Amino acid sequence: MRESNNRWVLWTLVVITILLLAGLGYSIYLYQVINDSRTAGFETTKNQIESQTSYHNVHSIQGYYGENSYHVFYASNQDDEERLIFLPLEGEERELIVIDTEKMMREEAILDAWSSSCDTCRFADIRPAYEDGQALWEITYHDKDNRFVMDYYSIDGESLEERYTYNKMFP
Question: Strand pairing partners for 75?
């Protein structure tokens, strides 16, 4: 009788271990698939820009998915001047939108200005955005009422252009 109880415990532990390992393996696989889809086309964009334009040293590539989708990256031109570049992902003519970084407010400076105006907020992310023909800074955060907020500041940091606030659906 005692031996059958030990077998039951042993088989239960073996099954639980197999399920945990399978769950871990699936989680790793799922993470890789999601990350690959998130960064899809970044390397192609980098190679295309470096080979077909006068911009080199392409770095810090990310996606922006607003009304239109863009690959957003920093690159240097032949005079080693840093530029922020938006490459539209849709449309026949995918013309580059180039912003001189000297005319932009630095990311750290805009974050400092934002944090001094919202001291109870929990910062989430900052990234360049492009909406309605205008380059912007998109700052996402949670406010004091735990709402998710997206602020769009002009790229020079002079004005708040838009704000979207989303209430929490579930407590």
Answer: 83
